[in-house]
Amino acid sequence: MPHFGDYQNAIYNAGLSGVIPKLPVDYATLEQRASAAMPPSVLGYVQGGCGDEFTQDNNAHAFRHWGMTPRMMVDCSRRDLSVELFGMRLPSPVFMAPVGVIGICTQDGHGDLAAARASAETGVPLMASTLSNDPLESVAGALGETPGFFQLYTPKDKALAESLVRRAEAAGYKGIVVTLDTWVTGWRPRDLNVANFPQLRGAVLMNYFSDPVFRAMLAKPPEEDGAAAVRQWAGVFGKVLTWDDMAWLRSLTTLPLILKGICHPDDARRAIDAGADAIYCSNHGGRQANGGIAAIDMLPGVVAAAGDVPVLFDSGIRSGSDVVKAIALGARAVGVGRPYAYGLALDGAAGAAHVLRCLLAEADLLMAVNGWPTIADVRAAGAVRI
Ligand SMILES: Cc1cc2nc3c(=O)[nH]c(=O)nc-3n(C[C@H](O)[C@H](O)[C@H](O)COP(=O)(O)O)c2cc1C
Ligand SMILES: O=C(O)C(=O)c1ccccc1
């Protein structure tokens, strides 16, 4: 049976013929390489966060304050990293978080398709953002056998929201992720200092421009008057959602409904009472609010409140060990954000696939060393504050 950890052997064996990995295997070097290669405006948008980026830094740093105790003399020669989610069996607990500018992370402007191909290649699901350079149908078409999820930014216009969800259902996505924390953009000094917001420059709006409800709002089609289409987008982008909207959100789809951005146990309980199928604990990678608490430190409270309802997690995952810690703290599945965006920027689909394979290899080998043959064993072992 192949293991994710086999990627390590593949690297060492290639070294015997003088071949070293095209991209680094660690996040710090990957980020450095991406910083040198990406256009400064795109890099600033991806790498930056809210305020002085304390929350963003803390998201990653906080993993150092959680530790795990190894167990010996356990037969870990076969490992199984698969998890069950919404009745599907996923090969690993890792997914690609929705990242709305991956379209412009590759030089050809088709980073969304490249991410979808990386998903097809690795079996790591993609959460396809509403903000995409290719229509959600084309992205779905590149996912191969790997299940995909559609992330909805709920527009002010309900008919447009419904149209996007119908399209996602028709395209075969397996769940709808509604992001709650970004109806307005957080204060992002890196972007503000260069007055750059890619969406207002017309980037990554193809799901809107291809939507019949959106197009009907325009005097002229986006192909004829791009500036007016962007203005219309800015006017319609972000609906202020309240709990009163929950019944409507739930009624939008019979697919699993996942609420992204929940960090407070009371919000988790309320979402579940109102029919959410999963809670997605995330602080948007520290891009939205510079509140200070690392997302991983809020995960245990959300997991306790959610009971049997699956909790997904992202914000600060930089390594396989981070993945394992998040699972130990109760996440059913773990999202990766910036790391795969850098992989895309440096080497397209192959770069993203490499980043994911490295994370999975490290997670698998950590489980092997620490005596946890399955994800259930990781969860049972737990993690402690150090
Ligand atoms: C450049 C960028 C764009 C993002 N766009 C979206 C988006 O369109 N929808 C969404 O729900 N989250 C979006 N996110 C947030 C990610 O889904 C995720 O919460 C975050 O990246 C996790 O933190 P990490 O990048 O530090 O791992 C974006 C994040 C980044 C870095
Ligand atoms: O950049 C982001 O994090 C993001 O998701 C977003 C999307 C649209 C408007 C503002 C922020």
Automatic annotation (TrEMBL):
InterPro entries: Aldolase_TIM, Alpha-hydoxy_acid_DH_FMN, FMN-dep_DH, FMN_HAD, FMN_hydac_DH_AS. The keyword Disulfide bond does not apply. It comes from the Bacteria. Keywords: Flavoprotein, FMN, Monooxygenase, Oxidoreductase. The lineage of its organism: Bacteria, Pseudomonadati, Pseudomonadota, Alphaproteobacteria, Sphingomonadales. The active site is at 284 (proton acceptor). PROSITE patterns: FMN_HYDROXY_ACID_DH_1 (PS00557), FMN_HYDROXY_ACID_DH_2 (PS51349). Gene3D superfamilies: Aldolase class I. GO terms for molecular function: FMN binding; monooxygenase activity. Its cofactor is FMN. This is Lactate 2-monooxygenase. FMN binds at residues 98-100, 129, 151, 179, 282, 314-318, 337-338.
